[in-house]
Amino acid sequence: MTPEHLPTENYDAQLEEKVARLERMMAPFSAPEIDVFRSPVSHYRMRAEFRIWHDGDDLYHIMFDQQTRQRIRVEQFPAASEVINRLMPQLIGAIRAIPTLRHTLFQIDYLSTLSNQVLVSLIYHRPLDDEWRHAAEVLRNTLCQQGFNLHLIGRAAKTKICLDQDFVEECLPVDGQSMIYRQVENSFTQPNAAVNIKMLEWALAVTRDAKKDLLELYCGNGNFSLVLARNFRRVLATEIAKPSVAAAQHNLMVNQINNVQIIRMSAEEFTQAITGVRPFNRLQSIDLKDYDCETIFVDPPRSGLDAETVQMVKQYSRILYISCNPQTLCDNLVMLTKTHDITRLALFDQFPYTHHIECGVLLNRRD
Length: 367
Description:
- The protein contains ten helices and 17 strands.
- The chain has an eight-stranded mixed sheet with strand order 1-16-17-15-14-11-12-13, sandwiched between helices. Strands 4-3-2-5-6-7-8 form a seven-stranded mixed sheet, with helices on one face.
- The protein starts with 10 loop residues before the first helix and ends with a strand.
- Helix content is 29%, strand content 31%.
- The longest helix is centred in the first third of the chain and has 16 residues, at 11-26.
- It folds into two domains: 8-41 and 192-365, Vaccinia Virus protein VP39 (Rossmann fold), CATH 3.40.50.150; 47-168, CATH 2.40.50.1070.
- It is α/β, with parallel strands linked by helices.
């Protein structure tokens, strides 16, 4: 596969291979049949990052072959959203003609939305000044006049120049409701918006019968929190990254959701707090004992849950686990299935044409 060609004719075969691989990995846990959620075969990535190569008076986007490290010129990138593909030649053409903007530019990052907003970060190997700002404003205004809903940021060592804002506003239709998400530059967001919608709707469906409160670890910008709030009396959610916490608070406000409480702390810290290992000033205004959580939702990084958090998670009647690494998920399931049964299993093809698998499991404690 090359950056400018997707083997769309092989999509079904690569998805079948992932399903078979996940079935083999889950066989020791007596898992049920897999709910499989497909990706669009092209234009599925809302984010893209490119190095910039300078060749005399020319410059262009490049990527590197992962095996050979060969440099590959990229004019179009069909894995990325349609708006990114429309913008790429217009942006690079405009920068090519402006020496102030092209000098030492070495990377361009794109973040787009289904609502056709685009945030572009231009990253440099030199200090940025007022001359750069003026040229960047001209560039942004020119592209906006061409029909792009564009926001522009300049980055250099210890420098960030934001012309107007450093975020985009995504709008996702989830089970009949439109959900608004602020997505901040350099913060984690789900890259495949179409599959993210399917993940949210699956999580909503498998917790439809919930009656009490929800504890959520690793909530990010509230991607799942906002939706799952429909099914629970209250949601207590944790996140360690400051920009994500701020975005989550904003998202709760604009979606008029008032039954979610965000705590800025890591999963490890929350485990220490709820098990009484140590007190935290951040929890002075929150009475953890006031929450009646039968369900816990976790969406950890690739490393999975640490041993102490696994022990804490096991105390809940129902565990909803979204994983971007089925191997570490299986490692955690060795312990979790000593007390719980897997009742639902899903594969979300977030990263088509790659080895990566995103999956979800619902576990219920055995009586």
